[in-house]
Amino acid sequence: MSPVKLNVLPQAVLQSPGEHPKFIEQALCPPLDFARIHLIKDKDATDDYLAKNIKGVSEQEAAAYRNSYKKNICIDMLRRGYHKSFSELLTLIQKWNALREAAGPGSAIWHEKSLEEQPDKLDQLYHFLTRAEAARRAGHYEEVYDNQLSLACFFNEPEDKWLSNYFYEQSFNTAQLVEIDGGKRKAQAYVNMGLINEEQGHVMKAAEHFETFYQLTEGTPWKDETGCAYTSLACQHLWRIYTLLADKMLENKEHQEAIKTLIKALKMAKEGGDMKMQGEAAYCLSLAYHFSGEHETALTILKTSVEIFTSLCDSAGLGRAYAAVAKILASQGKSDEAVTYLGEFMKDAESAHLSQSLVDANVLLGKVHNERGNYNEALEYFSQASEAAKALNNLPLVAEAESYCGMARAHQLMVAFNSHVAAAAADPRSLQCLLAWKQSRSDVCADPLTGVVDPEKASEAFWESNQPEPDKETSASKPL
User: Fold this and answer.
1) pTM for this entry
2) pLDDT tens-digit profile of 382-391?
3) What is the Cα–Cα distance from 431 to 122, expressed in whole angstroms?
4) How far apart are CA 405 and CA 382, in angstroms?
5) Chain CA centroid to CA 340, Å
6) Distances (CA, A) of 318 to 311, 327, 344, 356
7) What number of other Cβ atoms are within 10 A of residue 351's Cβ?
8) Which end of the chain is less enclosed by CB atoms within 10 A, N or C?
9) What angle do the packed helices 275-291 and 255-272 form, to 10 degrees?
10) CB–CB of 125/84 below 8 Å?
């Protein structure tokens, strides 16, 4: 599935919901058990069949040899009385053709084979559609559901997404008729429809489906094919969808509604038993409190997030949590407290040998000092971050740290440069010094980083830089 997009909360908090849960073992139809030639897929197989059956070919078999594989499949469905399956298959083929025409030449689907030109997919449709129709006639809706779900799981390639969604929707409708399994299939159908709605951007509708899934699975021992409990799946999906809803609320400045929704998300994360999820849920809730102006509450919850990420040795989570702490403290004018807190982060990262967190800690400390105007200290921390990044052999991280070093050096230079500009009105030699330094970038005027100016050298450099070059004749030196 495509990645979940956040607009206010950090993108790193949520990942893609992944594939649909595996509720049944993937079943493929066995080789079609027909002796008749009309279900042989290609000419070589037909010739082989004829060689083994030299006695002759029936009129039906001869007609089948001339027909397309799709037509032969349809004829067999009708011959065996599966009229609904025949009708459904034709509808799907027509829908594929309509999608292709709507996309037009140059689109990805335009260059794909038509559904009717893919015998393997036709086999699956023939097998499971006819089984589902037979089960429906007998009133065995649980079997109808299983066959429809098998088809939804089979069509798992990107180009078959529309087919997969179609059969998930059909299985959802069928699940409402199943009464013998305590609601297990109905629960499966709700989570599958929730994932489809989420992918299509219908977040509120997805939330409704996931909430129903949670209600149906609460207190049950059900597990999917991977051994994951249905209740854990429900908590995971509800945490994610509540976080998505809260992000939209924060974007619309609905802070209190977002806080209520994120409290529900945190509850789901705790109930699901996933510590990583709990850390992220607490982190998001703290940001919502911060945006609403409740900074102390935000800091309290952030400390919980820090504790969870520390226990998990989660460098990325720790970096985000400590960055949020520093930002909140700085917004309250508590820069000294922010520096102290980040110093603890750096010590913890060193003791736990979390190299990525060590880079993050130094960068955060450098940023705080840079904002306070302590450019020498900022440069020192940024340089330490660069060295730590080099030890990780992480070139993008090294480049980021080096860019921070460049900014700190530029700020250092601006301090000395601005002081010379301010003094230039009272002392022309300071202006001469700056002009000479700008033209030569040498230290004759003294390095602006040191702030020490030699007036005599500055004046001499200025006049030398404005003298004409000896090999060029001036108007005064030209012969009359």
Assistant:
1) 0.76
2) 898 888 888 8
3) 85
4) 5
5) 33
6) 10, 14, 12, 10
7) 8
8) C
9) 170
10) no
